[in-house]
Design goal:
With 106 residues, the protein is of the alpha+beta class. The protein has one domain: Nuclear Transport Factor 2, Chain: A, CATH 3.10.450. 35% of the residues lie in helices and 36% in strands. It is built from 3 helices and 6 strands; from the N terminus they run ααββαββββ. A 6-stranded mixed beta sheet has the order 2-1-6-5-4-3, covered by helices on one side.
Length: 106
Amino acid sequence: MNTNEQIVHDLAEAWRTLNPELLIQHLAPEFQYDSMWVFESLDHDGYADYIRGKFNTIKNSGSSLTIHEVPGRNAIAIVQGAGEPTYYVIEIKDGKIVKGDLTAFI
């Protein structure tokens, strides 16, 4: 497994286990996160706080998630309950995630 594949695997595992530290360890200091449903971007520290809170909320709600790595892409598919997939697409540079985009399509 090469570095990019390992990072995508760790991203998927973070979502499967709701362990944000598996994801945060791979973020570059200049990391930027965007979601097509939110107007403001988050930087490294803002995103670390956000994802910790989000995973806690999911744990407390008992919501079910299904996570799949997207073959050939630096991305995972996230399905909540019986809903449609949401895609988390990442850009990797020098072994670190520099960009994360949450989107309805890839």
